[in-house]
Amino acid sequence: MSVDLIALDLDGTLLDPLEQVSEANRTAIAAALSLGVRVVLVTGRGVEAPAEIARNLAIVLPVICCHGALTKDVQTGRTIGHIPVPLVHAKPMLEYAERNGIDVAVYVEEHFYRLGGVPPYMSDMQGPEWNEVASFRDLPHVAPTFLRFLGQAAAETVRTNFARLPLHFKFETWGTFEECAVTSRDATKRHALENLCDTYGIVRERVLAVGDSRNDVPMLRWAGIGVAMANAEPDVQRAISRVTASNTEDGVARAIERYVLDPRLHERTA
Predict the structure, then answer these.
(1) Closest listed residue to residue 14, CA positions, set 174, 245, 194
(2) 85 with 147: CB under 8 angstroms?
(3) What is the DSSP string of 46-57?
(4) Do residues 13 and 210 make contact, with C-beta atoms less than 8 angstroms apart?
(5) What is the CATH number of the domain that holds 169?
(6) Sheet of 225-228: strands edge to edge?
(7) Last residue of a domain, which of 146, 164, 184?
């Protein structure tokens, strides 16, 4: 079957180490869009960065962000889907973190919070939507989209104290930096992508998905064509049979060219 939708992770996949989209990746995405193929960004980040990237690439589909917990229509600002962490679980986790000096960030849809003095560990933890608070008790009394435990000590705290909770724990390592994102059990990239495809009447067999992280694996396995990046961890590459080039070698462009553009070209010339 030909591909009707391309799902792309951001960090380590579409973005290079400088968090830029290469010219080759831009060109391949534009070519796919010109053929009527839909493109969706699927990321663990909050709304702001993927929304800006989508606009720059002329992608009109909603963005799937916050590890699948939030799907947002960037054209209208409308929330398409939101699966937050139940407050009954989030509240004691935040109280424990504050009491014990554990670094954690709280995402509430498009608004993000950290305690005063907690450093912005990564570039995506800065910007106008980020707020410092004196206490997590000052947050809006709503279920958060997800919690982000920052650093090895924080990730170990989750393993030791909260692993029994009925939540989804996404442990990731970026170089020497470890973190753990905590979402609802139902909030995954795979489920959000599946729901979006159902909305547009697209079957999984006609989906190309590209990613590099452990939390991408269920999405890559679900898609008709799942492709891992060459810079992915070895266990990710072992889990996915197809591997493209790295994010420094235009891996996304290579995957689109192979599985989307070349087949369409052959159809046109047949």
Answers:
(1) 245
(2) yes
(3) -SHHHHHHHHHT
(4) yes
(5) 3.30.1240.10
(6) 38-41, 5-8, 207-211, 225-228, 242-243
(7) 184
Give the count of domains, the chain: 2
Strands 146-150 and 167-174: unpaired
In terms of domains, do 214 and 234 share one? yes
Is residue 267 over pLDDT 60? no
Q: Are residues 229 and 109 in the same domain?
A: no
Going by the DSSP 8-state scheme, the letter that residue 84 receives in this structure is: P
* Residue pair 188/67 in contact by the 8 Å Cβ criterion: yes
Residues of the domain holding 102: 87-184
Q: Which residues contact 137 (CB under 8 A, 6 or more apart)?
A: none
Q: How sure is the predictor about 270, in pLDDT bands with cuts at 50, 70 and 90?
A: very low
Residues written for the chain: 270
Beta strands in the chain (DSSP E): 5-8, 38-41, 63-65, 70-72, 79-82, 104-108, 111-115, 130-133, 146-150, 167-174, 177-184, 207-211, 225-228, 242-243
Residues 44 and 103 in one domain: no
How does pLDDT run across 86-104, given as a tens digit for each residue? 999 999 999 999 999 999 9
Same domain, 215 and 155: no
Domain termination residue (choose one: 119, 153, 184): 184
Per-residue pLDDT tens digits for 24-75: 999 999 999 999 999 999 999 989 889 999 999 999 999 999 999 999 998 8
CATH of the domain at 244: 3.40.50.1000
Tell me if 217 sits within 8 A of 200, measured CB to CB. Answer: no
CA 230 to chain centre: 18
Euclidean distance between CA atoms 255 and 257, whole angstroms: 5
